[in-house]
Specification:
This protein has about 350 residues and is an alpha/beta fold. It is built from ten helices and 15 strands. α7 links the parallel β12 and β13. About 45% of the residues are buried. The structure holds phosphoenolpyruvate and manganese (II) ion (MN). The site of manganese (II) ion has 5 residues, from loops.
């Protein structure tokens, strides 16, 4: 990093800055200009202590050279990473379509929905067994019974499954049934959960918090990566804003923004971003066009009876139409939705 010294700093203050830089184990390269002195600091910028350079008298500005999210950054890994969920490849031109109901409600309902989404071309089945609900009186999910149903239905349709884990104490249990761990928007900065998922040998779907910056999202990914788990897929799902005609505000620029800074795959969830089935297809198309590595949508065969997020669910025939359009679009862009090889 580079320390820009204040123009009025005394020689003693500059000497003190250099002394602190060396004390912390860095090498200091001092460049004294006529008007300004700058100190180049060589060494691992993530080392504890370096965040305090701006607190030293005489230092005007600290300019980091490396990203604070080292493992997630493109500096660390130049080419795009791909993450495998079961056989499904996400990234490197291979697109994910994660589809299913918001919550697992029972075997028959999930089976019916899975049949439709599989036929439409979804390659990963979703469904929540532990639901983060705003109201404690709302349906909280079926817990382990739901996980068993998700596993059975996923196996029946030969689809890997993803489900949310809300608490570090649930990670082991959820890992027994799922192929991918979802960390929800509300838990994006639950650091104990991030660390626990980082220790698990399952890919992680990390959703952007509703008031999180792109940098916050990448720092949360760094928590998982730094525990040894390299398989992180990011998910843009909208952020809170003043707009009240949509559930959240979808930040489409997050896709190229993340791609520029990180090698990790990123998908988009227009269901939670907009909360509106009439807007979801256009936002799915925009996501693929913007370079996303996949899409995540909620589908229900009877939204009026859904136990969670019914109003934003696509009907099976809407999902089918959407997939038809997305396949054409992906093809035109030289990418494709991962599909099993026909035998
Ligand atoms: C979900 O996927 O059902 C969910 C709760 O998503 P989010 O964490 O993005 O709100
Ligand atoms: Mn939902």
């Amino acid at each position: 990093m580079i320390l820009v010294i204040r123009p009025d700093a005394t020689l003693e203050q500059i000497d003190h800055v250099i002394e602190r830089v060396r004390e912390l184990g860095f090498t200091a390269h001092v460049s004294r200009g006529e008007a300004r002195t700058i100190v180049g600091v060589i060494g691992d910028e993530t080392k504890p202590g370096s965040e305090n350079f701006s607190a030293i008298t005489g230092v005007e500005q600290v300019l980091p050279i490396m990203k604070p999210f080292k493992l997630a950054s493109r500096e660390f890994h130049k080419s795009d990473s791909a993450v495998y969920v079961g056989k499904v490849k996400i990234g490197g031109g291979s697109l994910a379509m994660i589809a299913g109901p918001c919550a697992i409600e029972g075997y028959e309902v999930l089976d019916a929905i899975a049949k439709y989404v599989k036929a439409g071309g979804a390659n990963i089945l979703r469904g929540g067994a532990f639901k983060p609900r705003t109201s404690p009186y709302a349906f909280q999910g079926m817990g382990e019974d739901g996980l068993k149903i998700l596993r059975d239905v996923g196996d029946k349709y030969d689809m890997p499954v993803v489900t949310e884990v809300m608490d570090p104490r649930q990670v082991e249990l959820v890992c027994r049934y799922t192929d991918m761990l979802q960390i929800g928007a509300r838990n994006m900065q639950n650091f104990d959960l991030l660390k626990e998922c980082g220790k698990a040998m399952k890919p992680v779907l990390l959703k952007r918090g509703m008031s999180a910056t792109v940098k916050d999202l990448l720092m949360s990914a760094e928590y998982v990566l730094s525990e040894g788990n390299k398989d992180v897929v990011l998910c843009e799902r909208g952020v809170r804003s003043f707009e009240d005609s949509t559930r959240n505000m979808l930040d489409m620029s997050a896709i190229p923004n993340v791609k520029g800074q990180s090698h990790l795959p990123i998908i988009v969830d227009p269901s939670h971003a907009t909360g509106r089935p009439d807007l979801i297809p256009a936002m799915c198309r925009a996501s693929v066009a913007a370079g996303a590595d996949g899409v995540h949508v909620e589908v229900h065969n009877c939204p009026e009876k859904a136990l969670s997020d019914g109003p934003q669910a696509l009907l099976p025939h809407q999902f089918l139409d959407l997939m038809g359009d997305l396949r054409k679009l992906a093809g035109a862009l030289g990418r494709e939705f991962w599909a099993p090889v026909e035998k």
